[in-house]
Amino acid sequence: MSIIPKDRTIEALAAVWASLDELLSSLDTEQWATPTVLEGWDVQANVAHVIGTEQMLLGVPGPDITIDRDGTPHVRNDIGAFNEVWVRELDGRSPAEVLAMFRDVTSRRLAALRDMSRTEWDAESFTPAGKDTYGRFMQIRVFDCWFHEQDIREAVSRPGHVDGVAVDVTLDELTTAMGFVVGKRAGVPQGESVTFELTGSGARTIHVEVGERAAVVESLDTPASVTIRLPVLQFTRLCGGRTAVEPARELIDVVGDIELGERVLANLAYTV
After folding, report:
1. Cβ-contact 214, 180 below 8 angstroms
2. Whether the Cβ atoms of residue 216 and residue 177 lie closer than 8 Å to each other
3. Which of 98, 129, 170, 254 is found 20 to 30 A from 17 (Cα to Cα)?
4. The domain that contains 190 carries what CATH number?
5. pLDDT digits (tens, 9 = 90+) for 32-43
6. What is the pLDDT of residues 178-231, one digit of tens each?
7. Does some domain include residue 169?
8. In terms of pTM, does the model score above 0.90?
């Protein structure tokens, strides 16, 4: 079970929601309807998704809407169907109404989180990554909300919020998956190791060593079999399946076992 810092994670949620509020407040009605990289979702749909998840966490029942998966090709699983219910529910609302709902639900969520005891925070909970602590779920919420903020920023050509506590917490969450990505998805063999050198704002280094299983480690005793160097933002977009390797090729440097590095890059996208 993951023991996640409470104050820092809540600070990160507050930061990403404040950044989203500032961004959304600057958009006109046409920009709210701009398609994003996520199939079937425009800017407003991304905001509706954030609202719906936070409403659920407040105990608000979801809208009584049934999603026809056959008629909605971008809905591929139960989580996708849950998300789509709130997108449909808010589809006819004006941007001003949706922004007001976003402000209301995030304000109430921050109050509830700050009032939560440490025992409640560390208690076992459902999370999108399986059973873990409630704190881990909130770390995933930072990750998810920041990803959708970047989806919106990319769609409306407003880059920003690429450093700070929300980015740090997002990278903490991404780091937890790198053993799975290297060992399971990429099938890097035992005895090999991979280093990710993330550059630019929020820069960090992530080492993955493959023994009986692949695991993130603080350091390697010998040079990595392959080092993959790329900007933080590009790393997150690849992990989230928001872009492919080739369009970003000029931003990526692979040193060492090139074939192994390319295999890891091709399998970075792990989110549902």
Report:
1. yes
2. no
3. 129
4. 3.30.1050.10
5. 999 999 999 999
6. 999 999 999 999 999 999 999 998 999 999 999 999 999 999 999 999 999 999
7. no
8. yes
d(CA 191, CA 47): 44
Residue 84: the pLDDT is: 84
Residues 6+ apart with CB under 8 A from 251: 230, 231, 234
Predicted local confidence at residue 69, as pLDDT: 55
CA-based torsion, 48, 51, 53, 55: positive or negative: negative
My answer on whether 214 and 97 are in the same domain is no
CA atoms 54, 55, 61, 66: torsion sign = negative
- Count CA atoms within 13 Å of residue 171 on its CB side: 22
Query: Beta strands 226-231 and 214-217: pairing type?
Result: unpaired
Q: Residue 198: which H helix or E strand, with range?
A: strand 193-199
Q: Which helix (DSSP H) or strand (DSSP E) does residue 264 occupy?
A: helix 258-266
Backbone angles phi, psi at 250, to 5 degrees: -70, -15
Q: Given a cut of 60, is residue 16 above it in pLDDT?
A: yes
Sequence-separated (6 or more) residues with CB below 8 Å from residue 213? 179, 183
User: What is the rounded CA–CA span in Å between residue 153 and residue 122?
Assistant: 33
- pLDDT tens profile 113-160: 999 999 999 999 999 989 999 999 999 999 999 999 999 999 999 999
Instruction: Name the residue type at position 89.
Output: E
Closest to 256 measured CA to CA, from 227, 234, 230: 227
The two most distant CA atoms of the chain are separated, in Å, by 57
Spatial distance between the Cα atoms of 3 and 128, rounded to a whole number of angstroms: 16
Same domain, 145 and 214: no
What pLDDT was estimated at residue 106?
Answer: 98
Question: Does 34 reside within a domain?
Answer: yes
The domain in which residue 181 lies consists of 177-266
Task: Kindly state whether residues 133 and 16 are assigned to the same domain.
Answer: yes
56-71 core/surface letters (b: 16 or more CB in 10 A; e: else): ebeeeeeeeeebeeee
